[in-house]
Amino acid sequence: MMKKRRTWLIGVDEAGRGPLAGPVTLGIIACPKKSARRLFAGIRDSKRLSPKAREEWFRKFSARTEIFYYVTSVGPSIIDRYGISSAIKKGISRLLKKAPRGEILLDGSLKAPDRYFQKTIIRGDERVPIIAAASVVAKVVRDRKMVRLAKKFPLYGFEIHKGYGTELHRECIKKHGLSDVHRRSFCKAF
Fold first, then answer.
1. CA gap 107, 12 in Å, rounded
2. Alpha-carbon span 53 to 71, nearest angstrom
3. DSSP codes joined into one string, 62-108
C-alpha cells in the first residue's frame, strides 16, 4: 500500500542530454522523507563520481527495500522528431506514473506536469542528495545501455565515450557515417 501524499521524497534527474548518440535517460528515486538524509549520506552528483563509485551506489539502492527507483529512456528517433526538451518531458511523465506520490525535487531545468507537487532546483544534482541519487541511477543505466550498443555497433567506441561528442567519436562518424542510434539532429555537421 502506498504511503500518504508527501510522505515520500522523490528525486528526478537525467543523463545523456547532450550526446551525439544513444537515448536520453531519466531516473527517479524515492524514499520515505524521514529516511532520506540517512540513505543518501555522502552521495555526490554522478558526474563527480567514478564509474566504480556510481556502480557501488547503484548496488546500495538495489539492496534497500525502502528505496524505490525507476528509469526510462527516450531514444534518438523521438529526440530527432520532437527535440530533446520534449523527449525529456515525455520521459518525466513516464517516470512519475510509476512513482509513489510525494514531494518531487527535480534538477536544473526539469519540470514535471503541473498536477504534481514539485520543486526544480538549479544544480540540484550537486546540492540535494536525493537528486544526486537520481543522477546516479540515470547515469548507470544509460552507460550500461551504451556498452550494450557498442556490441551492436562496434565501429563507434560507444563503450568508451558513451555517445558523447569526443574527438574519437567524431572521427568514427567521419569514417563510418551515422548509425541507427545517432541523433541526426545533433550530428548535422557530419
1. 6
2. 19
3. HH-TT-EEEEEEE-HHHHHHH-HHHHHHHHHHHHHHHSPSEEEEEET
Taking only the tens place, the pLDDT of each residue in 13-43 is 999 999 999 999 999 999 999 999 999 999 9
Q: Which three cell numbers stand for residue 84?
A: 530533446
pLDDT in tens, 40-72: 999 999 999 999 999 999 999 999 999 999 999
Name the nearest CA neighbour of 110 among 128, 92, 135, 87: 92
CB count, 10 Å around CB of 163? 27
pTM recorded for the entire structure: 0.93
Q: Which CATH superfamily is domain 8-186 in?
A: Ribonuclease H-like superfamily/Ribonuclease H (3.30.420.10)
User: Would you say 22 and 145 are in contact if contact means Cβ atoms under 8 Å apart?
Assistant: yes
